Amino acid sequence: MAKKYVMNAYPDLNYDGEINMNTLICHDREPVEGRFDGKVIIVTGGSSGIGLSIVEELLKEGACVVFTGRNMETAKKACAELDSKGLKNYMFSMKDMSEENAAKDTAEEAYLRFGRIDGLVNNAFFFKSTNRNLDNELWYTSFKSGPLNYARMMQAVYPYMIKAGGGSIVNVSSISGHIAQGGNWTYNTMKGVVGMLSKSAAMDFARDNIRVNMISPAHIWTRQTTGSFTNDEGWRSDPESRRNYARYTAKGYMLDRAGEPVECAAAALFLLSDDASYITGDEFMVDGGFITLGSQGAIDKGRRDEREYGLEPIYSIGPGHGGTVFTKPQRDYPELFKEYIKEPHFEP
Fold it and tell me: Measuring CA to CA, which residue among 75, 157, 91 is closest to residue 120?
């Protein structure tokens, strides 16, 4: 029997138990039986992580699903996982969504296989980023593999949705489209573009009974983000380091934890379904209260956690994960920060 949702997956707040991939990604949901019977939905980037969770939950609720991915080995593992759970009526299509014809070809394949298209989840997105040391090629790739890919996919499916009498599109964005994050010029910019793209598309498609919405996750535990939990080497190899890292990821979240893929899937399925028939041009923040809390709220929450729960503040837990314990510029601490400065420092 599927486990029920709980308000907080780690109610002790101290993460006293073992921390590994299975404890961080551990929750299921109760499917809404038959909610997508007869519906055909495309999920790009559906062979792992959030995308795969959306594929799985859609299949549980009766949808026929076409999902794309770039890595055949990853796709084979995903298909084996779906098969092991008795899930059918899906098709994998090997696609690099940055390629010009990928969207058109995916839509045609879905229609030829299942005879209609009712929904689309745009999830495939380029994750690498650049900073002030500009990499022009990375900017071009980020645009092609991000918002342009989303736009092409929406353009490709809407004629088929019109034939079906309407449809629903969910674009996966991110909290990164709302906040500044160091060294992430391209990723944050492109996720910000997804926001206005989705609103503009919602306006243009409304007359065709096609709704367009977004989900914007915060830190979500996936195989990628828990990769270092599965080996015995590196700075997260020992249990205490893993506990500290899990605690660190909870900083700034009202619910004191990062999220899970199935929680993103639940939001996406709601927006795809007829239950959301009067919702379009909107954004669902799947972020445990991160954006609402804001920076000042996060500081106050840290003080509360320290005062009420006896939690010691976590400021830094490894390379690339700084905190707020140092209030002066890095140049005032040359000995402490010399190993972390990767780019030239320009004095004013």
Answer: 157
